[in-house]
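Appendix B. One record, verbatim.
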Amino acid sequence: MPAPDSDSDRYRIRHPHGTAPGRPRDRAAVLALSDAFAAEASAAGYRAMDASDLDAVADEDLWLIESSGTIVGWAHGFPRPGAHAAIAGLDERMFALEDIYIAAAHRRHGAGRRLLDTIEHDLRTRTFARIILSSTSRDLARVMRFYQRAGFSTWSVAMHKPLLPP
C-alpha cells in the first residue's frame, strides 16, 4: 500500500459497471481523452471514440479515474469466456482489458498503476482468474515495462507487415 502522501492517493476510481458514462460531463471528458489519445498517435490504428462508440461499451466494464474531480483516464473491457485455452484451462474466467488510457500530465504519477490495481481488485472479487490484454503502442518497451512491473507476463506476440503501399 502506498504511503499516505504518495501521488497515487490523489486519484479516485469510479466503476459505473455495465454502463457507458451517463452524466454528460463524464461522456464529454471520456470523449475528449479519447481524442487526446488519438492525437498522440502513440497507438497504431487507434481511432478516437465518438458517442456511438461510447454507447457500444455500455455492455462492458468501464472504469474512470479522477483527480480533483476531473476525469484523467479510463479503461474498459469485457469477460472472455473460454478464450486463450493455450495458456489457461477452458474453465477459467478471463477478462479482456481492451483500452486503458491516462492523460499525459498524469502519467508516471501512479495514476495508471492505481487504475490497474483497482481493476484487478474488482475482477478478483467477481472471481475472474486472469486478465488478458494487448497493446498497439508505438513505445512497446515502455508499455511492457509498466505491465511487467504490475505482474503481467508475455505469452504471445503479434506482428504485421504491409504488403501493399499505403
